[in-house]
Specification:
This protein is α/β, with parallel strands linked by helices. It has four domains: 4-61, no CATH class; 82-303, NADH-ubiquinone oxidoreductase 51kDa subunit (Rossmann fold, 3-Layer(aba) Sandwich), CATH 3.40.50; 313-398, Ubiquitin-like (UB roll) (Roll); 404-459, no CATH class. 35% of the residues lie in helices and 15% in strands. The chain is built from 16 helices and twelve strands. Strands 3-9-8-12-10-11 form a six-stranded mixed beta sheet, with helices on one face. Strands 6-5-4-7 form a four-stranded parallel beta sheet, with helices on both faces. Helix 9 (203-218) links the parallel strand 5 (191-198) and strand 6 (234-239). The chain is globular. The structure holds flavin mononucleotide. Flavin mononucleotide binds at residues 128-132, 134, 156, 158-161, 245, 247-249, 282-284, 287.
């Protein structure tokens, strides 16, 4: 919607085969975007967004990694908590993080002990923010009780759902919060090693998290004796290789283990048989960061925000036809209309056509859904999903068939191929949306419908 096709054509005419089209770089708040690798013995990777072909040329010839202007996260209303340090604290400094309340939650966790931490997280009724809405307290409790050793904590920072960018912003702008939260998860569930699996297209997030880990280690907040507790805990970064499926927790374990990124059958569940076959807590970045406030406020008090079925706030990724795309923290239960309003509404007085909720794997809703409460139960009642917090807005001028064709193409390309309904079904679906005859045999899934040009219009 923001001219990415034209940008790709400009880049292809200037740089030829060095350009690869990507369906998603996790930058929907500021696209069109380019992920650039400057070759060399130690290749540099960086993202430019929004970007023009001239800017790419300039960045390639410059000797340093260009600084990308930060797009601010927005705190909205008294309920906003997760984003409060963003654009306020210095994200590269442990001292600044501490000045803004950082590491108080870890101190509290150490003071009250592992069982009480899990009790607070359970009392808060925190549900996972990665899409499946599983109760976090129950997950932590199950792992803590497992006699098998070692235990692991995995932070899922793969953020592979198109339209989502919340975890990237959290990692880039509040990396110490992510590290502190993983550490608390480790101490509470008896793990000595944690992993953070960062999406490969997020070099800035990786740099921010690596810097935070290094400073936390130097300050004794990670390592053989975390904050003088006598308990060891440390965190390793793993970079994803660009596969959507590796955001699924068991495919992610396989990926960390060096295997092909394909999901495992469940049961057994990760709490019993997770990473390296050991009891594992796996949580989304946003889920984990919520634990900090839960410990500071107390689980009961924290659970009073939001709704009965959806405690707390959520980070929503607003993009598409809104005046100010970006990351917005909104208390659970506010309406979809409110969320679009805080992003400035639809520009140029145009009418709303549809909203894609929850990401590419989510649900399209129409203008009749504007009063839907943004809560797990509100979405369920409307047969929709909040997924990973995507709110992608399409005004009356948007070509929805084009969008659908792109989504179908994405899932066709990203199917891991393990199961027949997906391996064949996503190809058929893409063909149908391209107006092709689905009965004519399976085409090479890597060719044929790269450019959703005019052919698909016959499907209307
Ligand atoms: C195809 C697929 C992709 C997924 N991608 C992600 C992802 O990118 N990030 C994420 O946190 N969860 C993702 N999930 C959900 C994870 O499997 C898992 O439920 C989540 O990491 C658990 O954390 P939570 O309880 O904190 O939400 C995905 C699930 C599926 C089926």
């Amino acid at each position: 919607m923001n001219g990415a096709d034209q940008l790709c054509r400009d880049l292809e005419s200037r740089f030829g085969h060095a350009v690869h089209r990507s369906p998603c770089l996790g930058q929907c708040d500021r696209g069109s975007a380019a992920l650039i690798t400057r070759a060399g013995s130690d290749p540099e990777r960086f993202v430019l967004a929004p970007v023009s072909a001239d800017e790419v040329a300039k960045a390639l010839s410059a000797g340093t990694v260009p600084t990308v202007p930060r797009v601010g996260a927005s705190a909205n209303g008294a309920g906003a908590k997760i984003v409060r340090r963003m654009n306020v604290a210095d994200a590269t400094s442990l001292a600044s993080y501490r000045q803004h309340g950082g590491y108080q939650a870890l101190a509290k966790a150490i003071e009250i002990g592992a069982a009480a931490v899990i009790a607070e997280v359970s009392a808060a009724r925190l549900l996972g923010r990665g899409g499946a809405a599983f109760p976090t307290g129950r997950k932590w409790d199950a792992v803590a009780r497992e006699p098998a050793r070692p235990h692991y904590v995995v932070c899922n920072a793969d953020e592979s759902e198109p339209g989502t960018f919340k975890d990237r912003v959290l990692m880039e702008q509040d990396p110490f919060a992510v590290i502190e939260a993983i550490t608390i998860g480790g101490l509470a569930t008896g793990a000595e090693r944690g992993f953070i699996y960062i999406r490969g297209e997020y070099p800035e997030s990786e740099r921010a998290i690596a810097g935070a880990i290094q400073q936390a280690r130097a300050a004794g907040l990670l390592g053989v004796d975390v904050s003088g507790t006598g308990q060891a805990f440390d965190i390793e970064i793993r970079r994803g290789g660009g596969a959507y499926i590796c955001g699924e927790e068991t495919a992610l374990f396989n990926s960390i283990e060096g295997k092909r990124g394909e999901p495992r059958s469940k049961p057994p569940f990760p709490a019993q048989f997770g990473l390296f076959g050991k009891p594992t807590v796996v949580n989304n970045v946003e889920t984990l960061v919520n634990v900090l406030d839960i410990l500071i406020d107390g689980g009961d008090a924290w659970s009073k925000t939001g709704t009965a079925g959806s405690a707390g706030t959520r980070l929503f990724c607003l993009s598409g036809h809104v005046v100010t795309p970006g990351l917005y923290e909104i208390e659970c239960g506010q309406t979809l209309r409110h969320a679009i309003g805080v992003a400035g509404g639809i520009p140029n007085g145009r009418a709303l056509q549809a909203v894609l909720l929850g990401g590419a794997a989510g649900t399209f809703v129409g203008p009749d859904a504007l009063d839907m409460p943004l809560s797990f139960e509100g979405a369920r009642a409307a047969n929709a999903t909040l997924g990973s917090g995507v709110i992608m807005v399409f005004d009356e001028t948007a070509d929805l068939m084009d969008t659908l064709a792109r989504i179908a193409q994405f899932f066709r390309d990203e199917s891991c191929g393990q199961c027949v309904p997906c391996r064949v079904g996503t190809v058929r679906q893409a063909e149908l949306l391209q107006g092709r005859d689905p009965g004519s045999g399976i085409r090479d899934p890597g060719s044929g419908i790269r450019d959703p040009g005019s052919a698909h219009h016959s499907a209307r």
